[in-house]
Structures are given as structure tokens and as C-alpha cells.
Design a protein that fits this description.
Blueprint (H helix, E strand, L loop, with lengths): L3 H4 L4 E8 L20 H18 L4 E9 L7 H14 L1 E12 L16 E7 L3 H6 L6 H12 L3 E8 L6 H14 L3 E6 L12 H17 L3 E4 L2 E3 L6 H7 L4 E4 L4 E4 L2 E5 L3 H9 L5 E6 L2 H12 L6 E2 H7 L5 H4 L8 E4 L2 E4 L1 H5 L1 H17 L2
Parallel strand pairs: 1-2, 1-9, 2-3, 3-4, 4-5, 5-6
Antiparallel strand pairs: 6-8, 7-8, 10-11, 11-12, 13-15, 14-15
């Protein structure tokens, strides 16, 4: 790990910190999180040790984005978040314009206090502006709670609002309510996710109906002036999430905490998802990887294309050729160009139809890249 600094592509990185605790799991949640809070203090002590270890490996690196996700970071005591930020501030050099995002549940009781941590971006998980849907999926907040949290966050930070289309019990009225929320509040950023469903599960609606609702929601938000800069993300006035752009551009970032992943140069790793193992290993002063690898040219190429095509800007073809010298998008994707893919100003990107069918198109693209490598 001593050589990790030489692997970096840039002089600045992003930090993701995972808070894997939530007072109650929502029915659709597949993130690594725990409802047992008995080890919260031990977990944060381990997290602080991990922050210190990484600062030793990267003593001169500058941090330009911090993102605290979960779980529900707003479910743990504020003081633990405060001590975590102070630890980062003490051990890393923060850029003057660093972006600091914290995810909160609308029922959070300390939204206003986040301003004292220099948080300048708050992501609120509304998911649906429909009380019946929220209750059905075991959300712990009301629509009214969301409005209070939004007002508090907006007083000091840019605000993102998360929505999920396809939740059990959803109706056309749900989407109408969601659209009205965006139209009324005009948040700086909106994320609209399409829930993957299985028709055999009770309460799920037909996929085609969900896809139509999703498309209506997306088009309504775009009509309000939001820039769809990524498949699921929309911004007003260039209020893009700088941290997530690091993921999509396959840049350098460190993931800290249980199940968190990082990408540093060609290094790709994921921490253990097992809470006990994470805590015990860091007590001994060791990092605890569940996966650690140095990407070869093919894997780095596939990751860069797969993530970059999620962005409306696409992915720089010259960057792809730096990874794989003979990369030729015209030859490889000749029958997809025009309908699903396009090349503009040196960037390979999805067309409007490609965005609409992104899951299928991206799978096809990666299959072709894999086959291309066979004939190298």
C-alpha cells in the first residue's frame, strides 16, 4: 500500500464515508446496513482508524469532495458525524471549494446543525410524495417531515431530493405528486431512480406501467429546465454532484467504512461488508478488504466506458485510447451509432434513445468490448 500514491491519476480525490446504521430497513433496500445500534461507537472508532491509515498512505493528497452515505447517517448521534469530519479535516488537506454532502432521512432532527460542519450539500430521501406508499415500504417519515427538512437544508446548502419510481402501491397520482414537489420547491438537484422489480413479488406493478411513469417524470423534470446530466440525475444551473462525477468519470476516490469501495489509479477495492470483521481488523491496525485488485487494461477500459456512458457528456475517446491503443468506436459500434450511440467532439455518448434503453445498450457495449479483446 505504500506505493498507492504513485498509482493516483490526479492530485485530488473524493472521500466516501459509509454509515451503515438505520433505525428501520425499508422493504426495497439492498444496501449494507444494520438496525442494531449496539456497535455504533465501536464502528466509528474503527472508521477513524481507517481514515488515519489512508492519510498515511496519501500524505500529500488533497480532498475536494466528501460524501457521507448509508444506511442513514442522520440516525446516528450528531457528535459522531462531527468527530468524523474533524478527523478528516485534521488528517487531510481540503480544497478551498470542497463539496461536502450528507444524506439525511426527512425525519432527521439535526439538519440545521450540519451547517456547523461546513456541509454544503444535503441529499434528502423523499422517495415518493405519497403517504400510503411511504407507509407501505416502511419509510419512517411523512411528506410533511420532508418539507421541514428541505426548508432547513435549503437555508445553508444545495439540496438534492431522491425519488424512486416503481415502489409497491404507487399510482399515477404518486408521480403527479412527485412532479408537483419538484415544480414547487425547485431543488438544486433531483435523482430519479427506477426500482428493479420482480413481477412475482406481491404489490409490484407491471414493468411497462412503471417505465411509462418513469418516462413521464423524467420528461416533466426536463421541461422545468433541469439538465439530465446522468441517467438518473438532474441539475439546475450546473449544480452537479461533484463527488458522484468522480465515480462516473472513473477518477480517484477512497471508500471508507463497511462495504465501501474505492478506485485509485488502476487499484479497485471493496471493504468487507461484515461489521464484526471490519471493527476487529481495524482495532489491529489493518485495512480490511473483501476485494482488492489492480485493473488490467481491459477491465479499466470496460469500467471507464460503462461508467462514462451514464453521463450525457459521454466518455472521452482519447482517454479510452490511452487505455487501449487500438480502440476504434466506429468499427466496434458501427451498427449502434446513430440510434443508440453517437460521437461528438471526441466523445462517445448515448443518444436520447440510448438513454431510454440504457441497461440494454450498456450491456451490449460491454459485451462487444470483451469480444474485441479476444482478438487483440
Amino acid at each position: 500500500m505504500e506505493s498507492v500514491s504513485s498509482a493516483l491519476v490526479s492530485e485530488s480525490i473524493g472521500l466516501y464515508l459509509h454509515v451503515p446504521f438505520c433505525k428501520r430497513r425499508c422493504t426495497y433496500c439492498d444496501f449494507v446496513s444494520f438496525t442494531d445500534f449496539s456497535q455504533v461507537k465501536e464502528y466509528f472508532e474503527a472508521l477513524w482508524r481507517e481514515i488515519e491509515l489512508w492519510s498515511r498512505f496519501l500524505p500529500t493528497i488533497r480532498v475536494e469532495t466528501i460524501y457521507v452515505g448509508g444506511g442513514s447517517p442522520s440516525d446516528v448521534p450528531f457528535e459522531l458525524l462531527e468527530r468524523t469530519f474533524l478527523r478528516v479535516q485534521d488528517l487531510f488537506v481540503l480544497t478551498e471549494d470542497f463539496e461536502f454532502t450528507v444524506e439525511v432521512n426527512p425525519s432527521c432532527e439535526f439538519v440545521e446543525r450540519l451547517r456547523f460542519l461546513n456541509v454544503n450539500r444535503v441529499s434528502i430521501g423523499l422517495q415518493a410524495a405519497d403517504e400510503a406508499v411511504l407507509e407501505r415500504v416502511k419509510r419512517r417519515h411523512s411528506v410533511g417531515d420532508f418539507f421541514k427538512a428541505f426548508e432547513a437544508a435549503k437555508s445553508f446548502a444545495k439540496v438534492n431530493v431522491d425519488f424512486i419510481v416503481g415502489l409497491p402501491g404507487e399510482s399515477d397520482r404518486t408521480i403527479e405528486n412527485d412532479v408537483r414537489v419538484v415544480e414547487t420547491l425547485r431543488p438544486d438537484h433531483v435523482s430519479i431512480y427506477l426500482l428493479e422489480t420482480h413481477e412475482e413479488e406481491p404489490g409490484n406493478v407491471v414493468n411497462e406501467v412503471v417505465e411509462n411513469r418513469y418516462e413521464r417524470f423524467v420528461e416533466a423534470v426536463k421541461a422545468m429546465g433541469y439538465d439530465r446530466y446522468e441517467i438518473s440525475n438532474f441539475a439546475l444551473d450546473n449544480s452537479f454532484c461533484k463527488h458522484n462525477l468522480k465515480y462516473w468519470r472513473n477518477q480517484d476516490y477512497i471508500g471508507l467504512g463497511v462495504a465501501a469501495g474505492g478506485h485509485l489509479g488502476r487499484i479497485r477495492y471493496v471493504n468487507s461488508p461484515r461489521l464484526e470483521e471490519y471493527i476487529s481488523k481495524l482495532k489491529e491496525g489493518d485495512l480490511v478488504f473483501d476485494y482488492f485488485s489492480r485493473n488490467d487494461d481491459l477491465q479499466e477500459l470496460k469500467e471507464t466506458i460503462f461508467m462514462g456512458l451514464r453521463l450525457s457528456e459521454g466518455v472521452n475517446i482519447e482517454k479510452l485510447r490511452q487505455i487501449w491503443g487500438k480502440f476504434d468506436p466506429y468499427e466496434l459500434f458501427h451498427d449502434l451509432l446513430g440510434e443508440f450511440l453517437e460521437i461528438e467532439d471526441g466523445f462517445l455518448k448515448l443518444t436520447k434513445r440510448g438513454f431510454d434503453l440504457s441497461a440494454r445498450v450498456l450491456a451490449d457495449v460491454i459485451d462487444r468490448v470483451s469480444l474485441m479483446a479476444v482478438g487483440r
